[in-house]
UniProtKB/TrEMBL annotation:
InterPro entries: Aldolase_TIM, DHO_dehydrogenase, Dihydroorotate_DH_1_2, Dihydroorotate_DH_2, Dihydroorotate_DH_cat, Dihydroorotate_DH_CS. Monomer. Catalyzes the conversion of dihydroorotate to orotate with quinone as electron acceptor. Pathway: Pyrimidine metabolism; UMP biosynthesis via de novo pathway; orotate from (S)-dihydroorotate (quinone route): step 1/1. The lineage of its organism: Bacteria, Pseudomonadati, Bacteroidota, Flavobacteriia, Flavobacteriales. This is Dihydroorotate dehydrogenase (quinone).
Length: 340
């Protein structure tokens, strides 16, 4: 029903406008009595065998929502009713910022992809923290970044501010230095700046009553040499793991008319590369740290490939938009089928 009826209607409108409309619809509709219960019955798969323990946290199932969809932690409860095992909010920055100029989100339907150049538009880490204080039982990741106006030499302070703001309301952190939509951000992926940033956050983490898992989200555009550096950095800084991968700046083999729009590409064209990165990190590190796999998951088969390549958990974003909420259920059912 989603792909044949609902998606064509949604895709006939501006992508960002329909995103906000969908948000409001999900929020308002689930205030109606019994709607949340009906959605949970329709989409959630309750089975102890799906429970996955990773970096000290117990996930009810391994299928999460990637950062970028619920940037400001406005809809995490409602989204969890669709069957996600965890929700990653953000990317949030210390100060609110509007992001890049419109238009900044583009569909590539022939490629089952999106291009975005949102630019970390969000209401700030402290506003997200206020909303998350109402959370009761949704496992939450906090994806953190720096403000656009903050020079790279001062970036550590931005990440520390976000860490302090979200510390008491998220279950794990994700350090985002891999978005292509904030000028010069990806320079922080270089070995020494990244080591300095992660060591600083780990030192701050150690002073808290209880250390929270910190993960690093990396770009799919890194070379093998750079990926080997990532492995060393994870092992030296002792962060909890890696999210592979963010969006790509590559535009290879695309068919859609608007393929040359600036920004990060997500969706089906990323399926193969993100799986390659997962497998490389898993094999070269000797499976020494957990990996959350994200990028081009549009079917249960795509999800199983990520898990078989070495991912402990997976996340959806573009696949969720193209395939609808039934994809979450179908992936969990496929995982259970593999266990038989």
């Amino acid at each position: 029903m989603y792909k044949s009826l609902i998606r064509p209607i949604l895709f006939s409108f501006d992508p960002e406008k329909i995103h906000h409309f969908s948000f409001r619809f999900l929020k308002i509709s689930q205030k109606i009595p019994f709607v949340s219960s009906i959605l949970r019955a329709q989409f959630q798969v309750q089975d102890k065998r799906l429970e996955t323990e990773v970096f000290g946290l117990k996930f009810p199932n391994p299928v999460g929502l990637a950062a970028g969809f619920d940037k400001d932690a406005k809809l995490y409860k409602e989204l969890s009713n669709l069957g996600f095992g965890f929700i990653e909010i953000g990317t949030v920055t210390p100060k609110p910022q509007p992001g890049n100029d419109l238009p900044r989100l583009f569909r590539l339907p022939k490629d089952k992809a999106l291009i975005n150049r949102m630019g970390f538009n969000n209401h700030g880490a402290w506003e997200a923290a206020k909303r998350l204080r109402k959370n009761k039982n949704v496992l939450i990741g906090g994806n953190i970044g720096k403000n656009k106006i903050t020079p790279n030499e001062d970036a550590i302070l931005d990440y520390e501010i976000c860490f302090d703001a979200l510390y008491s309301v998220v279950d794990y952190f994700v350090v985002n230095v891999s978005s292509p939509n904030t000028p010069n951000l990806r320079e922080l992926q270089e070995k020494q700046p990244l080591m300095d940033l992660l060591n600083s956050l780990q030192a701050r983490n150690a002073k808290k009553p209880e250390a929270k898992p910190i993960l690093l989200k990396i770009a799919p555009d890194l070379t093998d040499e750079q990926l080997l550096d990532i492995i060393e950095i994870v092992q030296v800084t002792k962060i909890a793991g890696v999210i592979a991968t963010n969006t790509t700046i590559s535009r290879e083999n695309l068919e859609s008319d608007n393929q040359k729009e600036m920004g990060g590409l997500s969706g089906k064209p990323l399926t193969k590369r993100s799986t390659e990165v997962i497998r490389f990190l898993s094999e070269k590190s000797g499976k020494s740290f957990p990996i959350i796999g994200v990028g081009g998951i549009h079917s249960p088969e795509d999800a199983l490939e990520k898990l078989e390549a070495g991912a402990s958990l997976i996340q959806l974003y573009t696949g969720f938009i193209y395939e609808g909420p039934s994809l979450i259920k179908r992936i969990n059912q496929a995982i259970l089928a593999k266990l038989r």
